[in-house]
Amino acid sequence: MPAFQIMSGSSPIPTAVRVFAPTAATSAHAHVRSMADYHALAARALAQPDAFWAEQAGRLSWSRTWDKVSAWDFNQVDIKWYLGGKLNACHNCVDRHVADGHGATTALIWEGNDPAETRRLTYAQLHEQVQRAANALKALGVRKGDRVCIYMQMIPELAVAVLACARLGAVHSVVFGAFSADSLVTRINDSGCKVIITQDTGVRGPKQDIAMKANADLAAPKTPSVEKILVVRRTGSSVTMQAGRDSWWHEALAAADAECAPEVMDAEDPLFILYTSGSTGKPKGALHTTGGYLTYAAFTFHYVFDYKPGDVYWCTADVGWVTGHSYLIYGPMANRATVVMFEGVPNYPDYGRFWQVIAKHKVNLFYTAPTALRALMKEGDTWPAQHDLSSLRLLGSVGEPIKEPEWLWYHNVIGKARCPIVDTWWQTETGGIMISPLPGATPIKPGSATLPLFGIQPQVVDEQGTVLEGNDVRGCLVLAASWPGQMRTVYGDHPRFVDTYFKRFPGKYFTGDGCWRDPDGYYWITGRVDDIIIVSGHNIGTAEVEGAIGQHPAVAEAAVVAFPHDIKGNAIYAFVTLKTGQAASDEVRKGINLKVRDILGPHAAPEKIQFAEGLPKTRSGKIMRRILRKIAEGHVEDLGDISTLADPTVVESLVSGRQ
Ligand code: PRX
User: Fold this and answer.
1) Ligand 1 close to Cβ of residue 426 (< 6 A)
2) What is the pLDDT, as a whole number, of residue 389?
3) Does residue 436 line the site of ligand 1, with CB under 6 A?
4) Residue 622, domain member (yes or no)
5) pLDDT number for residue 624
6) Predicted pLDDT at 377
């Protein structure tokens, strides 16, 4: 277990905290209108959790009601919700809305990379598409329980593919479209996917023809489980199609029957696997199941975004990450929302793109990441000023702490001081939002995710695991009780699930985050306490990056740490020792960077690479990252105790070689 750095990194906590109470206009129509209402609901959820969670499951349509609401044990690490219940996630996100007479409601507004490209799908059209896609997958041999890898950019077919898998009871594993062929191989082999759904090539900002099918082609010979590849034509660029293995999405859907009954799934049947970084080099496949996950996504979407019928909602997250799963597809669609899906990037064709899309589609609820806000804030207020943002009613933030400067900019310049900002803390593992303001009730302190949602029981523990009672306490954030959206296991490796989340503090779920509960009981997330780095909201394991750097032929050893970065929040700083006889050069530095891009993808590339003669190690050979972090952060005058190092002299040369 790595040493804890409870207050490591730049703390997001400002010295003087301003409080922003909900406006009367927001509270008047909100689902929860006051703190008294919040406390009343929270108290009920704590006193009668099963009754509370049964009520939340009532947001969905079940073909068989559960026999028992919950059965979980954090000592045995066995978690089940809605035992015996039967339902289908696609039916809940699509079919029932059409059956209820809402087929003409817009489900998806797709905004292409090029501002001239927009597509709309009603729930009725989505219904037809998912049935055809499900039949097309069936024709490729996909059955309930099979794993399907979805490797695409943000195009409507991605949402259709996800829902089609859910319809068949096939377990989708979405792999972020910017991941390399190698990353694709690791993930496909871990879950044994039978089919890959991809697209010819992709477009993103000024980048044209981003390799997608070509990466799937590179992966396929190394992934024995893959039998078929289904290819969406997005750009029309020419790709190689292997006879017998590859087929076109548009042809397969045209040939497929337009009707496909949804598979009846058990509440605890897997819905998807989503890979997230771990402290060891191998990514973990977080497994989410059908009934609990969908209930939790639907419940949180309703309360946190204060969603009302007719609202247009835009989540900028990619479906390759959990935010896109829970708050672009499952949560909103279970609530019959109209969702904007965006293929492009915030600065293309110019820095006004987000604001132009908001004005164009009259977006009411907008959910994005602090890293995007920082990048846009830097470009000044003239970009948002050119667009009509008066449709906005609520703003959201996710992925890392939103610090005061960008919070205030978001509030004043984008929200015109009218819109509440929900800073939502959660994780791939939690399935949905856990700590967040409720827009009509919670007085907001910029930078704090504020208070737990109903039924969620965060605790702060010290390094020994003692629960720190009362307020104004700092420590590790754990969760004392299960919730329906909790991941159930690491796919194919339950012992790793137990070790990662339940061993450090027995009987509790360990989040890996440090936090401060302030004098008012508000939660402030202070960053990871383990070997995971959050870069631009992307969760990256240090071991993965070190492994990739180690594959460069000149490298003997590498250690990476985070350092604060104006736009990305954190960036990666790599300390690299070269093999004897290898000379440090910009060429090698470039080569290392390319290696990481190739193996993991561009988001994991180190911002800085420092060549070092040696790394600071204890006598037992463990790298003391604490020291590397301080050097990377520039706090070289305060390195703490270095007497336990095998060779304390390495520190001096590390300090002098700082990049
Ligand atoms: O450290 C926390 C940070 O992101 C981690 C989870 O990353 P991931 O599983 O990729 O999910 C990201 C989207 C939910 C957390 O352990 N994090 C996420 N949201 C916040 C946050 N840190 C502070 N404030 C947040 N709102």
Assistant:
1) yes
2) 98
3) no
4) yes
5) 86
6) 96
489 inside domain: no
Answer yes or no: is the C-beta of 128 below 6 A from any ligand 1 atom.
no
Q: What is the pLDDT of residue 14?
A: 59
Give the distance (Å) from ligand 1 centre to CA of residue 428: 8
Print the domain residue range for 198: 89-106+122-271
Q: Residue 566: give its domain's CATH number.
A: 3.30.300.30
What is the position in ligand 1's atom list of the atom closest to the CA of 525? 23
Structural domains of the chain, count: 2
For residue 74, is it within any domain?
Answer: no
Please count the CA atoms within 13 angstroms of the CA of 372 that sit on its side-chain side.
26
pLDDT at 84 (0 to 100)? 98
Output the residue whose Cα is nearest ligand 1's atom 8. Answer: 427
- CATH code of the domain covering residue 166: 3.40.50.12780
Report if residue 185 sits inside a domain.
Answer: yes
Domain boundary among 221, 242, 271: 271
Ligand 1 pocket test: which of 513, 515, 524 has the largest number of ligand atoms within 8 Å of its C-beta? 513
- 369: its two tokens: 């990441």
Q: Which residues of the chain have pLDDT under 50?
A: 1-10
323 lines ligand 1 (CB under 6 A): yes
Other beta carbons within 10 Å of 645: 18
Question: What single letter denotes the amino acid at residue 98?
Answer: V
pLDDT digits (tens, 9 = 90+) for 18-42: 899 999 999 999 999 999 999 999 9
pLDDT value of position 10: 44
Give me the pLDDT at residue 6, please: 40
Which of 231, 250, 271 terminates a domain? The answer is 271
Verdict on whether the full-model pTM lies above 0.90: yes
The residue whose CA is least distant from atom 24 of ligand 1 is 401
Ligand 1: centre distance to CA 400 (Å): 5
**For the chain, how big is the Rg over CA atoms in Å?**
24
CB distance 460 to 517 below 8 Å: yes
> Residue 71: what pLDDT?
98
**Cross-strand bridge partners of residue 190:** none
Amino acid symbol at 371: T
Residues contacting residue 277 through CB under 8 Å, at least 6 positions apart: 283, 284, 532, 539, 540, 541, 544
